[in-house]
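Onboarding guide, step 5: your first structure request.
Type a short instruction followed by the sequence, for example:

Predict the 3D structure of this protein.
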Amino acid sequence: MSTNVLSTSAAIGFGGVVQEYLWNWENQQLRVVYETLGKGSPLLLLPSFSSVSTRLEVGELAKLLAPNFQVVAVDWPGFGESSRPSLNYRPEIYQQFLEDFVKAVFNTPVTAIAAGHAASYVLQLAVKQPATFSRIVLLAPTWRGPLPTMGASQQIAGMVRELVRSPILGQALYKLNTTPSFLSLMYRRHVFTDAAKITPSFIEKKWHTTQQPGARFASAAFVTGNLDAVREQSDFLKLVQSLTVPLMVVIGESSPPKSREEMNALIALPGVRSVVIPGSLGLHEEYPAVVLEAVQDFLFSSEN
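The system replies with structure tokens like these:
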């Protein structure tokens, strides 16, 4: 397993030191880009999975956290500026990546703030290796991909995934589902709540992210549920019940109904701290200052 951490001159970022971590998966080396900002105790900041996933979505939150923490934000394999090979993207890849990355980059227990679908992966690692994290914050946590949430069976989702992975038709279908107008619709529907923030330049940056070579492979896996680290609500809740580190959950008051139901089930468990703030599934990007205000007491508490 390669744990080389190399400096890179990449200019795209939020003002931190941009580096690359060379990671091997099944004899294939992937370049994973991450960014470090600030000084203090270590904090791992994980963006959500989505067709537009990138560490830049947590960039403003990283800048707000940097005065008190050494913040590390990462582009998941297959997303952002990281390598996007045509792998069969599935939970095992991200489970192993997260375990290896944390081991390579940190040498003490780290605070983890995970958005959206990153929640299950952080929880699984925390249960498997309890000394990895000192505390965990989940931002609008989800565990089920868009198509399964809409009711698609695993068979239908699998057919869609293979279709999008196919060379010519797949590329065409992917482009249709990542047009600026479609991205804008998705943001208005369940990601942001303030339409004024969904500007043409904002959408253009998101669109640019979706058009990188190989972008459709991990995106198709997420949309069709192939990155769902758990398959049932009971399994997700069982992870939380098995935790030995403090947990806080931040929920957007305008979250989609099905997602909100899942989040409500999570915060109903004993010992889970929670707060509801403005926003929806993209609350970490839309309202970073509100997120910080909501979680700062938890981050600085002496609770173990």
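Each response can be followed by summary notes, for example: The longest helix spans residues 91-105.
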